[in-house]
Amino acid sequence: MKVLFAVSECGPFAKSGGLADVAGSLPKELVSLGTEVRVILPKYGTISDEFKQNMKKIKEFSVNVGWRKQYCGIEELEYQGITYYFVDNEYYFKREGFYGYFDDGERFAFFNRAVLEALAQLDYFPDVLHCHDWHTAMIPYLLRTEYYRRQKSYGQIRTVFTIHNLQFQGIFPKEALRDLLGLDDRSFHPSHLEFFGNINFMKGALVAADKITTVSPSYKNEIQTPVYGEKLDGLLKARNEDLHGILNGIDEDFYNPAHDPFLFQTYTAKELEKKAANKKEIQKQFGLKQSANTPLMVMISRLTKQKGLDLVKCVLREMLQEDIQFIILGTGDYQYEEFLRQAGRIYPEKLKVQTGFNERLAHQLYAAADLFLMPSLFEPCGLSQLIAMKYGAIPIVRETGGLNDTVTAWNEFTGEGNGFSFSHFNAHDMLYTIQRAVRIYEDKNVWDSLVKQAMEQDYSWAQSAFSYNQLYAELMARSETHVF
Q1: Which end of the chain is more exposed for a tag (fewer CB within 10 A), N or C?
Q2: Largest Cα–Cα separation, the chain
């Protein structure tokens, strides 16, 4: 079985968030199950020279973007047993960062069309084309509505579309229909791309893909409600039979405290005394009191409303009244960054804030932390809580999406659980949960038992990859592709 992943970012080449982790890890696990997987993504200017120097240009052709004809090069790289194709167009992709430009609609309209055109140029037609988030969402739609479907080689391709975050949909003015996609007004219909007077790239995949997946079972259910459905809940309910929630995993080779080269001291669940060395070094590095008895709480996150920063703002003063140290690493909205910077100046002995992102430091903080705060408003899956537990940092989460599926609240009567949780998006519920965790931390024997349970769970991609493989096999068994 041949599967092609179409993604806007993929580790280790281009990463801004969890999508890159998924695209970088899941293919490797699928290959280990005997599935042939290749990946296609933009050739961004920020990809390191280490990778660019080993890429080989194999094709050059033109791609129609509405009325334009744009250059497209395909460069190939073999890396860790997987073939990667990079779509080259310096005008669109040789920029700082991946998203947030005024012409993102045009950039990714080009990428969607380039992926489809590349299949014929490469003479490589996968059995399954697996697309991810709005940046590739028009691929299933174009495949089913244009001349591609009348060609046998294209017409037999099955499509899977994964929603990593429904909040970002790729919404653009109606004019983009012709100007960017070359489609006529037949596509501007409520059963196709029309969305409150605009067009919606993600909706294209939701109406056209053979199968739709989300990154956790709970998120699958949540997005079929008005609260979390982002005005697409009706369509998602209509596609319920083809909608699947498959939990993400983490790359346990990259995230493993037993042999992580970024750590001050490696350790396992049987060597928790070694974990303490990482906490001591981080306390020293950040100018905090080097105290083994004071719990260190860490937050590694985008600083946005989705990640629960409003709750942190509301009760930060009360949180810091506890015998606790708090380190925050992340970047995001200016209002949160500035609030936290000012708070750090007021509470220098308790709170340290570092804006930006540093992979090495992130690993060191996971290893140093006793507690990991993740109070999300919504969370499709979340990888940070999985990484935290792998490193023995006990998560404090809100019961939503993938957080609800992966973190089981500690039960002091049965000794079961791997973290702490609260259900309502309420700052004082979060505060109470933090206070409870701090009290339990004081009992060394109980705490060590909790940490060991968290570290010894399986957070790998193995089960998820098996579920995806089953999904692909089901699609291949169908006699026809999805009709809409």
Answers
A1: C
A2: 69
Do β-strands 420-422 and 394-398 pair in parallel, antiparallel, or remain unpaired? Answer: parallel
Token representation of residue 32 = 């280990």
Query: What is the reported pLDDT for 39?
Result: 98
Across 208-224, b (16+ Cβ under 10 Å) vs e yields bbbbbbbbbbbbbbbbb
| 147: Cβ contacts below 8 Å, ≥ 6 apart | none
pLDDT, one tens digit per residue, over 139-154 is 999 999 888 988 889 9
Who contacts 368 (Cβ-Cβ below 8 Å, separation ≥6)? Answer: 278, 279, 281, 282, 283, 296, 298
CA distance 367 to 277: 9
Where residue 483 falls among pLDDT bands split at 50, 70, 90?
A: confident
Tell me the angle at which helices 138-145 and 104-122 cross, rounded to the nearest 10 degrees: 60
Confidence of residue 296 (pLDDT cuts 50, 70, 90): very high
- With 0-12 / 13-18 / 19 or more C-beta atoms within 10 angstroms meaning exposed / middle / buried, residue 10 is buried
Give pairs for 260-265: CB < 8 Å, separation 24+: 260/363, 260/367, 262/359, 262/360, 262/363, 262/364, 263/363, 263/364, 263/367, 264/364, 264/367, 265/367
Q: What's the predicted TM-score (pTM) here?
A: 0.94
Token couple for 416: 């079961």
- Would you state the pLDDT for residue 42? 98
- C-beta atoms surrounding 362 within 10 Å: 17
Question: Rounded CA gap, 201 and 179, in Å?
Answer: 14
pLDDT beyond 90 at 357? no
Answer whether residue 484 shows pLDDT above 90. Answer: no
CA nearest neighbour of 139 among 242, 86, 209, 72? 209
pLDDT tens track for 416-426: 999 999 999 99
- Residues 235, 203 contacting (CB under 8 angstroms): yes
Q: Rounded mean pLDDT of 51-74?
A: 97
